Amino acid sequence: MSITRVIRALLFALALSAISAAAFAQFSISVSFAPPELPVYGQPLLPGEGYIWTPGYWAYAGDDDGYYWVPGTWVMAPEPGLLWTPAYWGWSGDGYAFHQGYWGEQVGFYGGVSYGYGYYGDGYQGGRWQNGQFYYNRSVSNVNVTNIHNVYNTTVINSTTINRVSYNGGDGGISARPTPQQESVARERHIPPVAAQTQHEQAARTNPEQRASVNHGTPPVAATPKPGAFSDHAVVHAKATGTPYVAPVRAAVQPAKTPERPENDAARTDRPATSTPPEANRTPEARPIQPEPNKPEPNRPSTAQPERQPETNHMPAAQPNNRPEPNREPAQRPLTPPTERSQPDRTAPPSEPRAQQHPLPAPRPEEKKSQEEKPKQNEKPQ
After folding, report:
1. Percentage, residues of the chain above pLDDT 90
2. d(CA 76, CA 27)
3. 10 domain residue, yes or no
C-alpha cells in the first residue's frame, strides 16, 4: 500500500509540474499594439508577515475592452522559500505576447520592466528568505517596524534606467534579454498564481474604471493591501502624470464598422423588396390577358396548321389546273378585307382554309374531265 501511495504522489507531482510548465510556456494572448505606460502609485503598508509584494501590470480583456490595470498587491506566498516573478509583455514578431507571472525558488526574467518596490528589471531586492522566514528590506518595502520585526536595511542602487515602459521589445520597448541564469530558472519548477491572485485579476477585469480606455492610463485603484480589496480604505490611487493615454484608433474603429454591415445588408434586402411587389402585381395582370388570346385558339382547328402544310404542298402540283382560281380569289378578296381589318392577322389564316375547303370539290370534276380527255387524246391516234 505504501508503494502505491508513493507512486501516486510522484505521478501527481509530475502532472502538476507539467501543467504548470505548459501554462507558463505558452502565450495565449497576443495584441498588435503595446500596452500603456506604467502608472505612478505608492505601495500600501505590509499587512503581515509572509506576504510578498506582487507589482501591478496591464492585462488585456479583448478588442472591445482593451487593456485594464491589475493593481499591485501583497500576496501570501504559497510555500516558504518561493519568490514571485512578475508578468510582462514582450514582442513576439507579429504582436505583443503576454507572459504570465509565476512562483519559484528564484526570480526569473520579466522583460527588464522596472515595476519598482524591489522589481527594477532584474531579480527582487525587496526582501529575502532566511531560516524559513521572509525578511523585508526597509529601504524598498513599506513596513511598519512596530509590528514586523523581520526587517533589514540595504540601499538598492538601481543600475537600470528608470522609466515607465511596460513591455519588452517592439517599437519603443525595453531591449533587455534573459541571462543564461534566467533561462535556466525558466526551466525550473513553477507554481501558477494562487486562487487569490486569479480572483484579484478577475475583479479588475470586471471593473470598467480599471480599463485604460476609461481611466486614460491613471487607474483609480492602482494598488491594494490584499488581493481583491478594491474597497479597502488603504487602497492607493494612481497619480496623473505625463500625457493621458488614448486608446488606438483601431479599437475605436471596430465598433463603427459593425453598424455599417447591417446598413449595407438592409440596402440589399430593400432592392429585391422594391422589385418584387411590381412583379407580383404584373403577374396577376398577365394571367387574365393570357386566356384572351387563348379563347380564339379553341375556335381555330388545332389540326388546321398541319393541314395547311400539306395543302400548300398540293398547290404547286395543281398550279396548271388552278388557273381559273385567280378569278375566284378576287371575288373572295372583297369579302375578306372587312374581316382582315377587324382582326389583325390571326383571322386571315382561318378564312383561307375555309375558302380552300370549298373549292376542293371543284378540282375533282376537273380531274374527271382531264381523265375523260385523256382517253380522247388516246382515241385520236386510233
Report:
1. 51
2. 26
3. no
Task: Say which DSSP state 236 is in.
Answer: B
270 and 180 assigned to the same domain: no
Environment class of 361 (CB within 10 Å of its CB; exposed 0-12, middle 13-18, buried 19+): exposed
In which element (H, E) is residue 265 found?
helix 249-289
Half-sphere exposure of 236 (CA within 13 A, CB side): 23
Residue 68's alpha-carbon distances to 7, 10, 218, 292, in angstroms, are: 44, 39, 10, 77
Buried b (16+ CB within 10 A) or exposed e, 157-173: eeeeeeeebbbbbbeeb
Write the DSSP string, 107-118.
Answer: ----TT-EEETT
| Single pTM value for the model | 0.60
Q: Are 170 and 265 within one domain?
A: no
Q: Name the pLDDT band for 18 (thresholds 50, 70, 90).
A: very low
Domain that includes residue 210, residue range: 27-241
Which whole-number Å values give the CA distances from 57 to 100, 148, 204, 340, in the listed order?
Answer: 10, 27, 11, 98
Are the CB atoms for 351 and 358 separated by under 8 Å? no
Beta carbons within 10 angstroms of residue 346's beta carbon: 11
Task: Work out how many domains the chain is built from and give that number.
Answer: 2
Mean pLDDT for the stretch of residues 113-140:
95
